[in-house]
Design brief:
The protein is mostly helical and about 475 residues long. About 80% of the residues lie in helices and about 0% in strands. It has one domain.
């Protein structure tokens, strides 16, 4: 296999390699969910998931868009010295942002204590949580550098060791210690502290003293819009879980959390495409065929992701029983809309490539703010009628709205154009199939027949909308890849 080829073949090889890495990493995450949900009550599992989600979201907030900024300006530089300066300046900004966001984290902790979500006597949990957040910020920075410098083996090693160690530690707690919230967070911090040391060692050759300019204003300006997006997204995700816990019940928080974890299967594929696509896109901005490749990538990704989404819906009950027990079975009614929401949550990054190319990233902030307002106002407006199904449908629509909005904006501001007519037609066909076959169950089919009908029709849709030039491109890439 030609893993060193450039162009489309490199994109395919990156997708395959990162895909295998994702399968391994997410498999460990999957088994971690399995063992934790089996050994905790539904309510306690929901609490653990909430805290771990809070850690991830706080990490994203502190990074405040610098992952996108360093990737964009790193690829813009021609020589290695300037690339090292950009990386070092970005690390300086990461450290400043850790210090800046510390008071915000303390306010969030105070809020959780006031709402009796965390007891004042659990200060050790709070300390482990904050230290883990800081560790993950620097780990993420290191992973971005390894990813955009195409040091794939080191990137994959970090992901593998991080997931594997956490998995082993969970097994240890179950068999030889005590699986409680405090111990889970303690081992999570220790694992990430170890990974932090390895990550810094891997990128040490890219770090220099960025004199005389320690801070790059371009990085701040470019990353600011993405930082606001991260802030709004994180608040939205925390708000979703808090609203389920506060106005529905902690039981349904556990149900919702497990259904979200099943969406990991779709994210494995989506992340594989994105991990290969984004470095390829940013390093090939001057290529004339970028619009062609973007449209082809989008059509194939939509086809495969929706097929996987409907397949997960087919085997949803079996996955629930594997991860948890019969107490979680109600989650099967929420799997399909949640998974479709996850597809659009990840899919928007492909058409949004045009906005990155134009550098008019403030559009991301505007659309994310509109989505945040839609989410909050919709849930508050339906407060008296609220249940988990309504919350899930609102979230799914929100992700879809963001995807469509950014697709239109990308065509307006960028030279890289999407075929919007084809995109809207494909999504409309899938929506019609979902309503007729799944929602209305018009033909009264069982779940297996529903999936196979969707599979056959999806294949027909893909063949109909891929033109002869796109077919030739796919064949060429596959032939070069397997040489």
């Amino acid at each position: 296999m030609n893993f060193k080829a450039l162009g489309g073949t490199r994109l395919l090889s990156d997708t395959v390699i990162y895909g295998i890495s994702n399968v391994i990493q997410k498999s460990f995450a999957f088994f971690i969910v399995f063992f934790i949900s089996k050994n905790l009550t539904v309510e306690n599992y929901g609490i653990v998931d909430f805290i771990l989600t809070l850690i991830s979201l706080c990490t994203i907030i502190i990074i405040f868009g610098q992952d996108y900024a360093v990737a964009r300006f790193f690829n813009q530089e021609k020589n290695k010295k300037n690339k090292r300066i950009v990386i070092s300046q970005s690390l300086t900004l990461h450290l400043i942002q850790i210090i800046t966001f510390l008071p915000i984290i303390l306010i969030v902790i105070y809020f959780l204590i006031k709402k009796n979500f965390i007891s004042i006597y659990d200060m050790d949990i709070i300390v482990f949580t904050v230290l883990t957040i800081f560790s993950l910020v620097i780990i993420n920075f290191c992973q971005i550098i390894l990813r955009y410098t195409f040091e794939r083996s080191k990137f994959i090693l970090i992901n593998f060791v991080q997931s594997f160690l956490f998995f082993i530690c969970i097994i240890y707690l179950i068999n030889y210690s005590n699986l409680i919230i405090k111990n889970i967070l303690l081992i999570y911090f220790i694992v990430n502290l170890f990974i932090l040391i390895i990550s810094i060692y891997f990128i040490k050759n890219w770090l220099i003293t960025p004199k005389p300019n320690w801070i790059n204003n371009q990085l701040i300006k470019y990353g600011f819009s993405f930082g606001l997006i991260s802030l709004l997204t994180s608040i939205s995700m925390i708000y979703e879980r808090f609203f389920v816990m506060e106005f529905v019940s902690p039981y349904y928080l556990g149900i919702y959390s497990l259904a979200l974890k099943i969406g990991i299967i779709v994210q494995i594929f989506m992340h594989s495409i994105l991990f290969g696509w984004e470095p390829y896109f940013l390093s090939n901005l001057k290529k004339k065929n970028l619009s062609f490749n973007l449209n082809l990538m989008l059509k194939i990704t939509i086809f495969v992701s929706f097929v996987i989404a409907f397949f997960i819906s087919l085997i949803g009950e079996e996955i629930i029983l594997f991860l948890g027990d019969r107490n979680y079975l109600e989650a099967k009614y929420y799997i399909l809309p949640i998974v479709i929401g996850i597809v659009f949550q990840e899919l928007y990054r492909i058409p949004s490539s045009g906005i990155l190319e134009s550098k008019k990233v403030y559009w991301f902030t505007i659309i994310q703010l509109i989505c945040f307002i839609i989410l909050i106002s919709s849930i508050l407006f339906l407060k008296d009628l609220i249940n988990l199904k309504i919350i899930v449908l609102i979230i799914c629509f929100n992700y879809f709205f963001r995807f469509i909005s950014l697709s239109f904006i990308s065509n307006c501001v960028s030279q890289i154009k999407l075929n919007l007519v084809q995109l809207i037609t494909i999504i409309s066909i899938y929506s019609t199939l979902y309503i007729i076959i799944y929602y209305l169950n018009f033909f009264n089919l069982n779940e297996i027949l529903k999936f196979f009908v969707i599979l056959c029709l999806s294949g027909t849709i893909l063949i109909f909308f891929i033109n002869s030039n796109e077919i030739k491109t796919v064949k060429k890439i596959l032939i070069n890849f397997f040489r």
